[in-house]
Amino acid sequence: MSDTLKSSAKSDKGRSWFDHLRSKLRILYHGQSAGALRFQATILIVDLAIIAFFIASPLIRDTETFLWVDYSIAAILALDLVARGLATSHPMRWLRQMPVLIDIVILATLLFPTFFFNFGFLRILRLWTLTRTSLVWRPLEKRGLASNRDTIQAVINLLVFIFVVTGFVYTAFTGREGIDGYVDALYFTVTTMTTTGFGDITLPGTFGKLVSIVIMIIGISLFVRLAQLIFRPNKITFPCPQCGLSRHEPDAVHCKACGHLLNIPDEGQG
């Protein structure tokens, strides 16, 4: 009987330690204390450095230190994924979220760079998954720049699309007619999505034409979205208590959908 009690006590102690770890990680990733904010700022800086490495990967892939940096980043991303999973209240629900699944795919391309060589261009999606977290937006909100969130997100979406497509074109068409390197792939992507169409670089075959069509359609859509956000008056995100409409004019007094009286705080208010 005493052995059973000892075993139960050890089990309780183990659970307490695990719960304490999860609580600590939850505070670090989602807290507002000075220590938590420093931790989040450090994570953001590391993430931005990793994204810069992903963008430069095609240019430095043949260097001697590439694999060392690649595996080091894989270790950092793996630790970050595990820590974020422990910090969430519902790990299984968190695991099914699209940004998390994308991060897992990115981790796989880092752990097996040779096997997943043709999918390396997906790594830049890390920039998109980063914007799905509060690490990017919380500092902007503290500086009163929350009203520019949609515009910043549109710029990031455009950049992610450009570099993902550039990586795909470089991987799928390098060595063929016109595409001799990463810069050529980037040049083709930008000229195609802006419909400039100089014609000095084209993708061969039916597949190449289909890829060009997709680039043009999605690229134009992203450019139009960005132009709308830049030239259209900014709106405030403030859910209406009655109907739930969340986008209003900065000086709105009543909800335009239901007429409910709004109390939108000024940017200087907490």
How would you explain this protein's 3D organization?
One of its GO terms (molecular function) is voltage-gated potassium channel activity. One of its GO terms (biological process) is action potential. Pfam families: Ion_trans_2. It is a multi-pass membrane protein. By secondary structure, the chain is mainly alpha-helical. 65% of the residues lie in helices and 1% in strands. It contains 10 helices and 2 strands, in the order H-H-H-H-H-H-H-H-H-H-E-E. Strands 1-2 form a two-stranded antiparallel sheet. The protein is flat. The model has no long low-confidence stretch (mean pLDDT 79).
Write out key terms for the chains shown.
3 domains, 10 helices, Helix Hairpins, two-stranded antiparallel sheet, 270 residues, flat, mainly alpha
- Molecular shape: flat
Strand content: under 5%
Query: Order of strands in the sheet with the most strands?
Result: 1-2
Could you report the average pLDDT, rounded to the nearest whole number? Answer: 79
Tally of separate domains:
3
Biggest β-sheet: count, sense, barrel? Answer: 2 strands, antiparallel
The level of helicity is 55-70%
Tally of DSSP β-strands? 2
Low-confidence stretches: none
What kind of assembly state do the chains in view correspond to?
A: single chain
Order of helices and strands: HHHHHHHHHHEE
How far do the termini sit from each other? 57 Å
Which structural class best describes the helix and strand composition?
A: mainly alpha
Keywords: Ion channel, Ion transport, Membrane, Transmembrane, Transmembrane helix, Transport
Domain Potassium channel: 160-230
Membrane topology: Multi-pass membrane protein
GO cellular component, one term: voltage-gated potassium channel complex
